[in-house]
């Protein structure tokens, strides 16, 4: 595998940057694999990587109907944090944050994980109570989170307007180890590392069916490049998870909504952290290119349109202008949407399914980027061992039948 050491970069620079190899191959699908993953987003690629690296399963294909990282992985606002309320969620997201901390070294690829802190603003009494509850719960789970007074909020993030607004800032919960990562680099890093371990990444190949044998078990997938056999199929198709799972006759407890984001023109470093406000609904950080990266809310209606309604973004910009009045003069460069798959309790599903050989990783809604390495890691375990890792054991499909919900819908500090 080619390396990106400083020495190598200098050597290539003197050679006009000729001779770099493609970072992954473009193989034709084989007739059969041990495992097929549907969807080359971060989660699917991470799963393939850990299948090869930790479980010695190299005969793996990741099948992607578009281009790798072109789904929600390449469309999100890159916020990473683990300060979720419930024990099950804290364990899952903290597992991911621990992997983020060593991911660039592990993949030998700079994913630009930047622990610049995630600051969640409280604007009313309910917010204060709820966030303090999060702080206590997180600390009991060994997850860093601390309460800041309004003055401490201002000191930590000076551009914020803390008083002269309709809902003044009454404090904030700060997770210092939270932050951002470069989403494309995450997809590329996992893709390169998986490819180098023998995983076939097959782009521009749509899965159109999941074939089951007489016993009901999975036999393989129908694709736009023909039938590909595999006894194990893992679905990591985000906004289209329910569509893909229906191909195997499994009805999922999911709804799909458009979720939007937008970026401003680039400016000099002006915003030091990630700020989230659920109450007035805005979240913002500054990318390393200088753009303000702004997340909006989901549309009110289900849709696969991959672009949301204009009033959703204008509402978010109203909130940003209140929070950071000097940004009123920033011009917005572009906006886009992704399709997010939302479960009734707003927690993901990472599980075996009632169909032997079929596994699913979905329901991440508006917040799965932060989980990418952790999710891929435990999903690989689930597929390799045919049983869940202790961390994802609670994240079953059956919880919606049995009532063991992980109800971050009411408890999460960000609107879904
Ligand atoms: C605007 C926006 C902002 C967000 N902000 C954040 C954030 O700040 N922090 C955070 O943690 N999360 C955020 N998220 C959520 C996060 O992006 C997702 O939860 C996460 O990226 C999901 O990753 P994935 O790999 O499962 O999905 P994806 O990257 O969407 O990958 C799924 C892939 O499956 C492919 N696929 C679908 N159907 C088929 C088929 N039939 N055959 C073959 N391939 C198929 C798709 O083309 C796609 O590439 C945001 C999402 C959006 C849209």
Automatic annotation (TrEMBL):
UniProt catalytic activity:
sarcosine + O2 + H2O = formaldehyde + glycine + H2O2; sarcosine + (6S)-5,6,7,8-tetrahydrofolate + O2 = (6R)-5,10-methylene-5,6,7,8-tetrahydrofolate + glycine + H2O2
Origin: domain of life: Bacteria
Name its cellular compartments: Cytoplasm
Keyword vocabulary terms for this entry: Cytoplasm, FAD, Flavoprotein, FMN, Nucleotide-binding, Oxidoreductase
Report the EC number(s), separated by commas if there are several.
1.5.3.24
Task: Tell me the cofactors it needs.
Answer: FAD; FMN
A Pfam family found in this protein is DAO
Which intervals hold domain Rhodanese?
Answer: 35-79
Q: Which family does the record claim for this protein?
A: Belongs to the SoxB family.
- Recorded protein name is Sarcosine oxidase subunit beta
């Amino acid at each position: 595998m080619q390396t990106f050491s400083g020495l190598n970069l200098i050597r290539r620079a003197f050679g006009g940057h000729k001779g770099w190899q493609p970072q992954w191959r473009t193989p034709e699908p084989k007739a059969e694999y041990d495992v097929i993953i549907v969807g080359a987003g971060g989660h699917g690629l991470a799963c393939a990587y850990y299948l090869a690296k930790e479980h010695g399963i190299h005969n793996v294909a990741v099948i992607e109907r578009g281009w790798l990282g072109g789904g929600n992985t390449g469309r999100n606002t890159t916020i990473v944090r683990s300060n979720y309320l419930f024990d099950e969620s804290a364990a899952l997201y903290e597992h991911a944050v621990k992997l983020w901390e060593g991911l660039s070294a592990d993949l030998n690829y700079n994913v630009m994980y930047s622990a610049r802190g995630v600051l969640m603003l409280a604007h009313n009494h309910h917010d204060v109570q709820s966030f303090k509850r999060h702080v206590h719960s997180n600390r009991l789970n060994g997850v860093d989170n601390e309460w800041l007074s309004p003055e401490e909020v201002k000191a930590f993030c000076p551009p914020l307007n803390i008083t002269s607004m309709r809902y003044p800032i009454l404090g904030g919960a700060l997770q210092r180890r939270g932050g951002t990562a470069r989403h494309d680099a995450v997809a590329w890093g996992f893709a390169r590392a998986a490819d180098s371990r023998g995983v076939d990444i097959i782009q521009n190949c749509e899965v159109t069916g999941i074939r089951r044998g007489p016993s009901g078990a999975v036999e393989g997938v129908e694709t736009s490049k023909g039938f590909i056999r595999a006894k194990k199929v893992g679905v990591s198709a985000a906004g289209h998870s329910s569509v893909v799972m229906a191909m195997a006759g499994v009805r999922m407890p999911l709804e799909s909504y458009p979720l939007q984001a937008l970026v401003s023109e680039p400016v000099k470093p002006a915003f030091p952290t990630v700020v989230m406000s659920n109450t007035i609904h805005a979240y913002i950080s500054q990318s390393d290119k200088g753009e303000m990266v702004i997340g909006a809310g989901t549309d009110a209606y289900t849709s696969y349109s991959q672009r949301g309604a204009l009033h959703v973004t204008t509402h978010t910009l109203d909130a940003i202008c209140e929070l950071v009045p000097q940004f009123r003069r920033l011009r917005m460069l572009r906006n886009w949407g992704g399709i997010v798959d939302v479960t009734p309790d707003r927690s993901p599903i990472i599980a075996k399914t009632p169909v032997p050989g079929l596994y699913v990783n979905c329901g991440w809604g508006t917040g799965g980027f932060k989980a990418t390495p952790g999710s891929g890691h435990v999903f690989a375990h689930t597929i390799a061992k045919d049983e869940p890792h202790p961390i994802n054991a609670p994240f079953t499909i059956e919880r919606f039948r049995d009532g063991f919900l992980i109800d971050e819908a009411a408890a999460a500090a960000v609107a879904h």
